[in-house]
Amino acid sequence: MLSDGARTRALHGPHRAGWPTAEPATIRMRALDRQTYVWCIGLDDWSAEADRLQRHLDDDETARARVLAGDRERVRFVVAHAALRQILGACCGESADRLRFLRSSPGRPELVGHRVRFNLSYGDGWALVVVSGAAVGVDLERIRPTFPVMRFAERFFLPSEAEHLARVPEPERAELFFRYWTIKEALVKARGTGLADLSCASVRYSSQGPQVPGFWTAAELCPVPGYAAAVVQARPGVSLRCRTWVPGR
């Protein structure tokens, strides 16, 4: 179930989501019992704020930003992780720079001392953050028309998925590939199993949209033209509320 401008996509192409702009302070933890929130962050939109936002990061995040190649990638890292901290801080009623994270063995981060579940995906100048009261994953990918989709599908997709992809006209194949990929990656991130499990994350398209196994539900999003995105969560029937992030003070 989707609300506030978010829509699932038909196979024919993306829908531009008119997500309202809001600061993270507009949500609280109690709201996550009823809804899952998705925030879209334009990383290059806030590059001038990077020095101010960096104060939210801890020593580990600062060190990770420092070793990235190029100023643009460092700034994007800072903005993405500062946005994540501001959003989580608003949910938990805690200062963004006081939050502490732990990583489980497959690499899924968890917030120390709070029951909120979250996930971050970013690249090519955009990021998505999802926050929920239950296990959740998100992925965002730029659709690259020249990407060798069949070679990757034969390696990472189930045979039925690769066959579906092969039947699609070539001009539409890259978009469908990345739609599959984002759902699969969001699912393994929600499970906390890591990308090694990608080939076991089955996706089936029906008239109701993408279907994934078990108690998981998948939704496709279109936050930015030319990108594929998906959220997978462990709570059937819980609506998504989608926002465009504006940094708080």
Q: Would you summarize the structure shown here?
A:
Helices cover 29% and strands 26% of the residues. It is an alpha/beta fold.
Structural class: alpha/beta
- Give the count of helical stretches: 6
Radius of gyration: 18 Å
Roughly how much helix do the residues carry, as a percent range? 25-40%
**How big a fraction of the residues is strand?**
25-35%
Gross morphology:
globular
Termini separation comes to 32 Å
Instruction: Please state the second-level CATH architecture.
Output: Alpha-Beta Complex
- CATH H level, superfamily name: 4'-phosphopantetheinyl transferase domain
Q: Which CATH top level class fits?
A: Alpha Beta
Element-by-element helix/strand order: EEEHHHEEEEEHHHEEEEE
Low-confidence segments, given as residue ranges, are: 1-16
Number of beta strands? 13
Biggest sheet character: 6 strands, mixed
CATH topology value: Ribosomal Protein L22, Chain A
Mean pLDDT: 87
Tally of structural domains: 1
